[in-house]
Write a structure and sequence with these properties.
The complex is a heterodimer. By secondary structure, chain A is mainly alpha-helical. Chain A contains seven helices and seven strands; from the N terminus they run αααβββααβββααβ. In chain A, strand 2 and strand 3 form a beta hairpin. Chain B is mainly alpha-helical. Classes of the chains: A mainly alpha, B mainly alpha. Chains A and B meet through helix 2, helix 4 and helix 5 of A and helix 1 and helix 3 of B.
């Protein structure tokens, strides 16, 4: 990977702007979340800490730094393979796309635009109301799943690697979600909730997790990977300039968010609510 | 063979192992084995990822 000073002027400016903007948003929203939670009506719950009170800051740091470390490693890998621009698209796009996708549901539920959905309880650094470790965890799972799918089937078909990547990611989440939602059971405080809390009621659930979560995971990974692969193709074939790739990539993110909103809303209202509400397939965890 | 080729695979495996550690602690705390049983769902993916790492990437590099 080239040193920062050796990069082209466009890359240097782009990296400064995108990481500068993300850094500023994360700093401001972290301060608001911890110091002024009443501004965004952060729910008051017992946070699931595993270490004693004097080590809680360290617990948050370990959690955040370990995901940051893994993400930096993966970012280096993507940059080596596809160049710094495409690697930055995947990393920052993951944070922005998953961040806003989650935010739509969290704040929509919290401020009464939809029924209550879910919220995160524990986090050191926050991207709006999503902990940074959740955004980076998504980056790790999404990229690794798509990478494995691409190599497994040696497919150059973008649709299939994105589709299979989405399936792989959902299979990982089917196991991961029940663990982190019930993490409160191993916390020091008996009343602690999980890392995130589902508030959706009268819906279809699998392992006590709303089905919409898994559908959302598939949709988000599939759409995002498909967009990124398309941009990669156009960039590597030199069909589009760097500026055009950047504008199209970030310009498409609101469209992907809208697609997720429409598809998930449609499935919940027209399929799940009339036919499958209050159905919990293999309940897991507490009441 | 470059280590960098395997970073994506290693990252995912480390991430899964960290979750597995939480899973084992949770089973210990609750006595509910279901969290470990659910590991059968992503298990094929872990095998696929290891297979990809051993055979596909190695062959390529």
């Amino acid at each position: 990977m080239k040193a920062f000073s050796d990069l082209e002027q466009f890359d240097r400016r782009f990296l400064l702007i995108i990481f500068g903007a993300l850094g500023a948003v994360i700093t401001i929203t972290t301060i608001i979340h911890h110091l002024f939670p009443f501004l965004i009506q952060v729910p008051t719950v017992v946070i699931p800490f595993i270490l004693p009170a004097q080590l809680r800051l360290m617990e948050l740091l370990i959690w955040d730094l370990s995901t940051v470390f893994l993400s930096v490693l993966l970012y280096y890998h993507v940059a080596k393979k596809h160049g710094i621009l495409l690697a930055t698209f995947f990393l920052t796009g993951s944070i922005i796309f998953t961040g806003f996708e989650g935010l739509m549901w969290i704040l929509g539920g919290r401020f009464g635009l939809t029924n209550p959905t879910y919220f995160f309880s524990r986090g050191g650094l926050w991207f709006f109301e999503i902990p940074l470790y959740a955004c980076l965890g998504w980056f790790i799972i999404a990229y690794s799943s798509v990478y494995a799918a691409e190599h497994l089937f040696k497919t150059d078909r973008i649709f299939w690697s994105a589709f299979l990547g989405g399936i792989f990611a959902v299979m990982i989440d089917l196991w991961m979600d029940p663990i982190y939602v019930n993490l409160g059971a191993m916390a020091l405080d008996a009343n602690a909730v999980g890392l995130w809390v589902w508030e959706m009621q009268h819906t279809l659930e699998i392992f006590s997790i709303p089905f919409m979560n898994f559908l959302g995971w598939f949709l988000v990974v599939f759409l995002f990977a498909y967009l990124w692969e398309k941009i990669r193709e156009a960039y590597q074939m030199k069909h589009w300039s760097k500026r055009k790739c950047t504008l199209i990539f970030y310009g498409c993110i609101p469209l992907l968010l809208l697609t997720c909103l429409v598809v998930l809303g449609f499935v919940e209202i027209y399929i799940i609510q009339p036919f499958f509400h209050d159905l919990n397939i293999l309940p897991v965890g507490g009441p | 063979m470059a280590f960098k080729e395997y970073i994506s695979i290693i990252t995912l495996i480390v991430f899964v192992l960290a979750t597995l550690l939480n899973c084992i602690f949770l089973v210990q705390a609750t006595g509910d084995i279901i969290y470990l049983v659910l590991f059968v769902i992503p298990f094929p993916i872990i095998i696929i990822v290891i297979y990809v790492g051993i055979f596909k990437i190695r062959k390529k590099s």
